[in-house]
Amino acid sequence: MLSVKFSIGNAENNSFAIEATFAHHYSYSYHCAAVLLLIKSRWEGKLAVVTGASAGIGLAIARAFVRSGLNVVGLARRKEKMESEMANADGKGSFYAYECDIANEQSISNAFQWIEEKFKTIHVIVNNAGVGKPGKIMELDFEILKNAIDVNLTGLLLCSKLAIVLMKEAHEAHIVNINRQCLGKAKDIADENIRTFYKTFVSSLFGHQVYISPKLPYANIYPATKFAVRALSEVLRREQNDGNIRITNISPGAVRTEMIQHSLENLERLEILEPEDIANAIIYAIGTPSRVQIEELTITPAKILS
Ligand SMILES: NC(=O)c1ccc[n+]([C@@H]2O[C@H](COP(=O)([O-])OP(=O)(O)OC[C@H]3O[C@@H](n4cnc5c(N)ncnc54)[C@H](OP(=O)(O)O)[C@@H]3O)[C@@H](O)[C@H]2O)c1
């Protein structure tokens, strides 16, 4: 049995609230429906920027936002892919694809100038674009390592700064940074003692803890960028402390996307996450009342396949 009470207040004073009473059986789908209703009321017609919206997690986030009534600007290099992937997205929100190389300062500046001219303000930004190439630091070209820093950290920093300038016009705003949970439950360590490892590392993040093994030597510069993103999120949260801009760091475990194709065979005993799982978490985070700061969300696969 489930009873859900909605009390929706005034958009201007952020007094939206949902009261949900879950009796006997908690229902996730009812919970999602409640959160979605809240999102639709509060964020409908507002502008969200999603970097890396052409594939994987970013594409799922763009779809979830459009479904929730947000207008979305997707920033990625593959503009046509964004357009074709989003062509049939359902929902009241509109999607605008803008070609942008997050490793290039001028390209980012051009994108935000276009956003300012067209929309004036930004309400939500999801700093999602990211790269992670397999290989050890000494085996990879410097340019590959530098590109990861440029996309994962420097580009994210510039996007955040330019977004915050435009967010000052908004009544409330939300920055979401996508971090990384340690890949953890991978085959090589699984063979040693997968359950012990899971319990030890489930709360540690690649942005919090480095994990490298002989069979998973791909981390290279990636954890350094994600450690830095976590620190940056914390500094920005303290600097933007008037409560109008909330900042959430999302740290997923393994998600089925292009990025981890190379390590899927090492993850065969994991029931890995889907991009929609991360998008749903972001819908939850931005849907909380404006007094609530979700600082960190760690999302890991629940099941280890035997
Ligand atoms: N998959 C996982 O297991 C996992 C787990 C935890 C966290 N993450 C993080 O989640 C985020 C998204 O990853 P994903 O798994 O969805 O990867 P993905 O499927 O490979 O997608 C990466 C996205 O980033 C964009 N991107 C890469 N370089 C870019 C650049 N120079 N300029 C603009 N956009 C760029 C790509 O767009 P274009 O190529 O079109 O430019 C693409 O849309 C990343 O920050 C990643 O570190 C992933």
UniProtKB/TrEMBL annotation:
Keywords: Oxidoreductase. The keyword Oxidoreductase applies. InterPro entries: NAD(P)-bd_dom_sf, SDR_fam. GO terms for molecular function: oxidoreductase activity, acting on the CH-OH group of donors, NAD or NADP as acceptor. Pfam families: adh_short (PF00106). SUPFAM superfamilies: NAD(P)-binding Rossmann-fold domains. Belongs to the short-chain dehydrogenases/reductases (SDR) family. This is Farnesol dehydrogenase-like.
